[in-house]
């Protein structure tokens, strides 16, 4: 598989992750034989096998299997530590584009909850109100603004202030507006736009300070298959 490289220097590789690819094996995927993004990158650049610890190696942050977009991979262990520190300290600006079910009335808003593992399903996360403290539940903050409204869906730009697992998917499900096409967090009778074969979630923008002192912005265009869904929704809006 050919992975598109957005940017590269001596410390860092920025890739445009396609949907349908696990970034690195963890949890259930540890047992899988499926090739991961980091496998493909190590084949292309064997020196990446010396960064960090397997199976994650130099991957600085995660994107879910069916989420596409900007992903950072460090080329040295020093730069991995440098980049991860910024993620931990909430100094990285990350923006996603997502399509959610239903009409979100406010033009912008903030979702602030605790997020922890869902009872009864190890694969899922669950949002809890701030007063429902418990073991393993951590604060999660998601900000959003409406980009466009369709008959049954709303297109959003989402910025996450914390990096919890499945945060965006979990938060919008909590708001009763799950991400279109999300099989795990969607509801039983959730409508799916025609032709959509995965969750409509794309990591479009990331801003971070590099080990060389420069602050850089990285962007990824909405993949063609998602753009097609929006074009069809615009037609049905007429």
Briefly say what this structure is:
The chain is α+β, with helices and mostly antiparallel strands. It contains four helices and ten strands; from the N terminus they run ββαβαβββββαββα.
Could you give the topology of this structure?
Blueprint: E1 4-8, E2 12-17, H1 37-44, E3 68-74, H2 77-88, E4 93-101, E5 108-117, E6 125-128, E7 138-149, E8 153-160, H3 167-174, E9 201-209, E10 215-219, H4 224-237
Parallel strand pairs: 3-9
Antiparallel strand pairs: 1-2, 2-3, 4-8, 4-9, 5-6, 5-7, 7-8, 9-10
Protein architecture, described:
37% of the residues are buried. The radius of gyration is 18 Å and the shape is globular. The mean pLDDT is 94. It has helices at 37-44, 77-88, 167-174, 224-237; strands at 4-8, 12-17, 68-74, 93-101, 108-117, 125-128, 138-149, 153-160, 201-209, 215-219. The chain has 238 residues and is α+β, with helices and mostly antiparallel strands. Strands 1, 2, 3, 4, 5, 6, 7, 8, 9 and 10 form a 10-stranded mixed beta sheet that branches.
Helical residues, percent? 10-25%
Gyration radius from CA atoms, angstroms: 18 Å
Q: What ranges have pLDDT less than 50 throughout 5 or more consecutive residues?
A: none
| Termini gap | 39 Å
Mean of residue pLDDT values? 94
| Total strand segments | 10
Q: Major sheet: size, sense and barrel closure?
A: 10 strands, mixed
Work out the strand percent.
Answer: 25-35%
- Classify the secondary structure makeup into a structural class: alpha+beta
Q: What is the overall shape?
A: globular
Order of helices and strands: EEHEHEEEEEHEEH
Give the count of helical stretches: 4
């Amino acid at each position: 598989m050919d992975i598109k490289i957005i940017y590269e220097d001596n410390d860092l590789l920025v890739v445009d992750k396609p949907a349908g690819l696990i970034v690195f094996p963890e949890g259930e995927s540890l047992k899988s034989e499926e090739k991961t993004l980091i496998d493909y990158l190590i084949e292309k650049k064997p020196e990446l096998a010396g960064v960090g610890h397997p199976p994650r190696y130099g991957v600085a942050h995660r994107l879910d299997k069916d989420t596409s977009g900007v992903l950072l991979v460090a080329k040295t262990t020093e730069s991995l530590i440098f980049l991860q520190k910024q993620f931990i300290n909430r100094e990285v600006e990350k923006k996603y584009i997502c399509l959610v079910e239903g009409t979100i009335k406010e033009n912008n808003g903030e979702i602030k909850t605790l997020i922890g593992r869902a009872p009864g399903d190890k694969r899922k996360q669950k949002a809890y109100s701030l007063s429902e403290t418990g073991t393993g539940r951590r604060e999660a903050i998601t900000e959003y603004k409406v980009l466009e409204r369709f008959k049954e869906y709303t297109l959003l730009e989402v910025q996450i202030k914390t990096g919890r697992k499945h945060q965006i998917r979990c938060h919008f499900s909590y708001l009763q507006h799950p991400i279109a096409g999300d099989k795990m967090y969607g509801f039983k009778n959730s409508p799916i736009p025609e032709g959509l074969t995965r969750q409509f979630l794309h990591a479009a923008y990331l801003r971070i300070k590099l080990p060389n002192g420069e602050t850089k912005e990285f962007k990824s265009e909405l993949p063609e298959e998602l753009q097609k869904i929006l074009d069809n929704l615009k037609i049905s809006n007429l």
